[in-house]
Amino acid sequence: MSFLDVIAALGRRWIVTVVGLLATAGLVYGASTIEPPVYTARALVLLVPSEQVVGEGGNPFLALGGLDLPARVVVAYYESDVAKERFSSGSADAEYVVAIEESTRGPVISVDVTDVSPAATLETLELLTSSIPVELERLQEEVDAPKNTVVSTLVLAKDERAKTDNSGTVRMVIAAGGIGLVATVVAAVAVDGLVRSRTRGRRQAAPEGPGADPAVPAPSAAGSSSSGPKPAGPNPDAKADAKPAKPATVRLPAVRPPSVQPPASRPADDRALPSWPNLPLDSRDRRRDDASARASSAESR
Questions:
Q1: Which residue has the higher pLDDT, 257 or 123?
Q2: According to the model, what pLDDT value does residue 280 have?
Q3: What is the pTM assigned to this prediction?
Q4: Residue ranges of domains in the chain
């Protein structure tokens, strides 16, 4: 079936098309409510080396090479189930990811938060960002690190406004719309084919003449005009409809040989042939000898 045939079927079954489009609109609306847009916010936290490593009058940014391991320890803590339950309990829909920022080579920790409202997203981001230095200090105190060797943190960047993420909603809407449109086209084409096949079957089963029964022949005009008995006499319609008569059969006389002639006691059969002259054998031989003699005399001449 070509594209034009599909368009024609949608036009012929416009009721099915309209109902399918309305159902598709309902599916799209339901998909948008099931998967609403979410909001994201991001922050970057830098680990700063201790006073002992930097030294008096030193630059902390020149001594970041050995802080990759402490940063990974902090990330491992925030990815644990205990930390996820602690920092996600404020909002049931809140999700966060704490990881090493791969775009940099230094000890930079990225914090990405996702929630269903901008206020909840920013609140969770602030909670995580402020807890990183606290948790880092706690981990160092547990190993009894000296005060002059404690690693500190610095917030490099933090979003003040949450961003809208419609990717999930768009995917759901596209999926719902595609399913609805495909179902509408399939239903319209199927109904159109069923109706046309039934119509074709009725046309083939219907009689050729209007209001006529194919099993009962239609009465002729002469018969329908008169309800009484037909008058005697030639019928022009009967002559026109009558088939040509077969020619009369001519019986030829029987041919009987003389040996099967009827006996003399029965009357003579006028169909019998006259007797066949049977010559004796000696006359046949004589005639053959005469023919041979004449041939010989003709050769000698």
A1: 123
A2: 57
A3: 0.53
A4: 3-33+168-197, 38-165
Average pLDDT of the residues in 234-245: 52
Q: With beta carbons less than 8 A apart as the criterion, state whether 28 and 180 touch.
A: yes
Mean pLDDT across 173-184: 91
Residue 152 dihedral angles phi and psi, to the nearest 5°: -110, 180
Kindly indicate the confidence band of residue 111, based on its pLDDT and cuts at 50, 70 and 90: very high
**Domain with residues 38-165, CATH architecture:** 2-Layer Sandwich (3.30)
pLDDT of residue 249: 62
